[in-house]
Write a structure and sequence with these properties.
This protein has eight helices and nine strands. It is of the alpha/beta class and 257 residues long. It has one domain: 3-Layer(aba) Sandwich (UDP-N-acetylmuramoyl-L-alanine:D-glutamate ligase), CATH 3.40.1190.20. The chain is globular, with a radius of gyration of 17 Å. The structure holds pyridoxal-5'-phosphate (PLP). Pfam families: Phos_pyr_kin (PF08543).
Length: 257
């Protein structure tokens, strides 16, 4: 059995964050563990409140897992503030964590800032160099690079620039493109495009969390990077196709067991 750890925020409505990550891990046949960085009070309409977890407690959770259990991969999602980020980076270095996937979560689809603006530089400096893969969407890639906007033509240059920040590879997700959901992978040498149509789906809560967790799981299962991204994207495609209405707003993607 492969043991996967998610370090992320809790979503009380179960569609994104820690809950999406653990559902993805179960669906893909790996054992899921969690370090919670923040508790969000949210539902399908949006985020009402956030309580950040103190850095000592983040450290204690990571230590408790690593000192007892072999960890084969780590997905990092919502990290909230500079203190939490610095702690996560120090702890993962200390424990020599493998297969780290960094999803630079910034703003929820409903518009809530899940990462403090002043934490962006810390995330770039501390977490990106630890990443086997970093998975920004287009607005996140823009924010990391300090640019206004990004279209499909600009994605290859942006991926190279993000690679210079230290991750082994970069996956820019094109879900915000107008005509298609084309993603670009850059491994430091080659570009690979993963092309897909936009699905006509209103219920998309938890898509980013699901993709990055599926990537971490497939890497831990031993797939090489290209196959990993392909398989993770296929899993997400199915999960979006079967997403369903829940509550009064944007429903969650559906996980397959
Ligand atoms: N809540 C938490 C805890 C998250 O980690 C995320 C995204 O990573 C979201 C909410 C946002 O989910 P979405 O933008 O898919 O609605």
């Amino acid at each position: 059995m492969k043991n996967l750890l998610t370090i992320a925020g809790s979503d009380s409505s179960g569609g994104a964050g820690i809950q999406a990550d653990l559902k993805t891990f179960s669906a893909l046949g790996v054992y899921g563990m969690s370090v919670i960085t923040a508790v969000t009070a949210q539902n399908t309409l949006g985020v009402d409140e956030v309580a950040e977890i103190g850095r000592d407690m983040v450290k204690a959770q990571i230590d408790a897992v690593f000192k007892d259990i072999p960890v084969h991969g780590v997905k990092i999602g919502m990290v909230s503030n500079p203190e939490i980020i610095t702690q996560i980076a120090a702890s993962l270095k200390e424990w020599k964590a493998p297969n780290i996937v960094v999803d630079p979560v910034m703003i929820s689809k409903s518009g809530y800032a899940l990462l403090k603006p002043e934490a962006v530089e810390t995330l770039k400096r501390e977490l990106l160099p630890l990443a086997r893969v970093v998975t920004p969407n287009l607005p996140e890639a823009c924010c990391l690079l300090g640019i206004e906007a990004l279209d499909e033509e600009g994605m290859e240059f942006a991926a190279q620039e993000l690679h210079r920040l230290g991750p082994e590879s970069v996956l820019i997700k094109g879900g915000h493109l107008k005509d298609a959901a084309n993603d670009l992978l850059f491994d430091g040498e080659d570009f690979s495009w993963f092309k897909a149509p936009h699905l006509n789906q209103k219920h998309t809560h938890g898509t980013g969390c699901t993709l990055s967790s599926a990537i971490a799981a497939h890497l831990a299962l031993g797939y090489e990077l290209q196959t990993t991204v392909q398989k993770a994207k296929e899993y997400l495609f199915g999960a979006i196709e079967q997403a369903f209405p829940l509550g009064h707003g944007v429903g969650p993607v559906h996980h397959f067991y």
